[in-house]
Amino acid sequence: MMSYKVGNKLKLDEVIGLYKDSTLGKRRPVKDRKRFLKMIKNANLVVTAWDNKKIVGIARAVSDFSYVTYLSDLAVRKAYQKKGIGKMLIKKIRQKSGPKTKIVLLAAPASKKYYPHIGFEQHNSVWLLKPDKKLKG
User: Fold this and answer.
1) Cα–Cα distance measured from residue 57 to residue 83, given in angstroms and rounded to the nearest whole number
2) DSSP the chain
3) Which homologous superfamily does the CATH classification assign to the domain defined by 2-117?
4) What is the dihedral of CA 41, 47, 53, 57, to 10 degrees?
5) Where in the chain are the domains?
6) Are 41 and 17 within 8 A, CB to CB?
């Protein structure tokens, strides 16, 4: 039976294994353990999905619990995808964020069809400053 937990006190190797076994592992620093640990520990809203004692999904976010929640990561093991786990993780994030809080995310190319399917609207005003780029002016 699937269960869901809130909190970022997780075993690093289990979480890295989850990311590697999802489509998100290719775009996150799974080989840089120190950086990856900071990603998990500094997220102030983390919800995980468990199949017995095996972590099978994670939603990692930063929220002010009033206006906006930035959903940084949504990862579900490949064998567990298309079973409603991702949607339930987002639902739990939304519940914890607060009733008037919007959720914002950057979607991976492979998930462009997923988010509209569950109710997200595309927004064209996203700006990104990558770590290797300098702020001009």
Assistant:
1) 11
2) -EEEEE-S---HHHHHHHHHTSTTGGGS-TT-HHHHHHHHHT-SEEEEEEETTEEEEEEEEEE-SSSEEEEEEEEE-GGGTTSSHHHHHHHHHHHHH-TT-EEEE---GGGTTHHHHTT----S------TTSPPP-
3) Gcn5-related N-acetyltransferase (GNAT) (3.40.630.30)
4) -100
5) 2-117
6) no
pTM: 0.92
d(CA 73, CA 60): 5
What mean pLDDT do residues 105-127 have?
A: 87
Find, among 77, 3, 71, 85, the residue nearest to 43 by Cα.
71
- pLDDT tens for each residue of 3-30: 999 998 999 999 999 999 998 888 898 9
Instruction: Write the pLDDT tens digit of every residue in 73-111.
Output: 999 999 999 999 999 999 999 999 999 999 999 887 778
